[in-house]
C-alpha cells in the first residue's frame, strides 16, 4: 500500500509552509482566480479548492487569520467556519449531486495535517459506491474534472 506522505508531498509542504510562508496566507495575498483557487472571500473566512482533491468539488474552509488550532480562533470566526461548511455542503450538493460529505480537520502533524500552522476544514463530496479499486489498491485517485472547471462551477453558485 502506498503511504500518504510520499517524498514529493513532504518537499512541497516544507517548501511552501516553512520556506515561503503558509500556503493559505499566500493564496490570500493573490487576486482571486484559477491561480489561487479561492472561490469565496468573507470578512473572517475564505473557501479554497484543494489543489490535490480527493474528489471533484473538494474544498477547504479556512480562517483568514493564521492560527494553528480551532481553539485559537474567536467565536465569530468559529461561527463563520461552520456557516462556510454549511454553505459548502449546499452548493457542492447542488452542483455535483453529492449523496453525502466527509467534513473534518486534521489538527497537528500526528493527525495527518499537511499544513499544521493554519487550521482549516475539508469538505469532500461523496457518492454511493465512489470508493473504487484505483484508490484502494493502486494508491491513485481519479478526478474526472480539471480544477479550472471545478473552480468555475462552484464560484458561480457560491453564496453566503
Report on the structure:
- It is built from 5 helices and 5 strands.
- With about 160 residues, the chain is an alpha+beta fold.
- It has a single domain (about 5-155), classed as HIT family, subunit A (2-Layer Sandwich), CATH 3.30.428.
- It has a 5-stranded antiparallel β-sheet, with helices on both faces.
- A hairpin with a 3-residue loop joins strand 1 (about 40) and strand 2.
- The chain is globular.
Give me a quick take on this structure:
By secondary structure, the protein is α+β, with helices and mostly antiparallel strands. It contains 5 helices and 5 strands.
The CATH homologous superfamily is termed HIT-like
Q: How many beta strands in the DSSP annotation?
A: 5
Strand content: 15-25%
Please, how many helices?
A: 5
Compute the gyration radius: what is it? 15 Å
What name does the CATH topology carry? HIT family, subunit A
Amino acid at each position: 500500500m502506498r503511504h500518504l506522505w510520499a517524498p514529493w508531498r513532504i518537499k512541497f509542504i516544507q517548501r511552501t509552509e516553512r520556506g515561503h510562508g503558509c500556503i493559505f496566507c499566500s493564496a490570500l495575498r493573490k487576486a482571486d482566480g484559477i491561480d489561487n483557487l479561492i472561490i469565496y472571500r468573507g470578512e473572517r473566512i475564505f473557501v479554497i479548492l484543494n489543489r490535490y482533491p480527493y474528489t471533484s468539488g473538494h474544498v477547504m474552509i479556512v480562517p483568514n487569520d493564521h492560527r494553528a488550532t480551532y481553539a485559537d480562533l474567536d467565536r465569530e470566526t468559529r461561527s463563520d467556519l461552520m456557516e462556510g461548511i454549511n454553505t459548502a455542503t449546499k452548493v457542492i450538493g447542488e452542483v455535483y449531486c453529492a449523496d453525502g460529505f466527509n467534513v473534518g480537520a486534521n489538527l497537528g502533524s500526528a493527525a495527518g495535517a499537511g499544513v499544521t500552522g493554519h487550521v482549516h476544514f475539508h469538505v469532500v463530496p461523496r457518492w454511493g459506491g465512489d470508493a473504487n479499486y484505483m484508490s484502494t489498491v493502486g494508491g491513485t485517485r481519479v478526478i474526472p474534472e480539471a480544477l479550472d472547471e471545478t473552480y468555475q462551477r462552484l464560484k458561480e453558485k457560491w453564496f453566503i
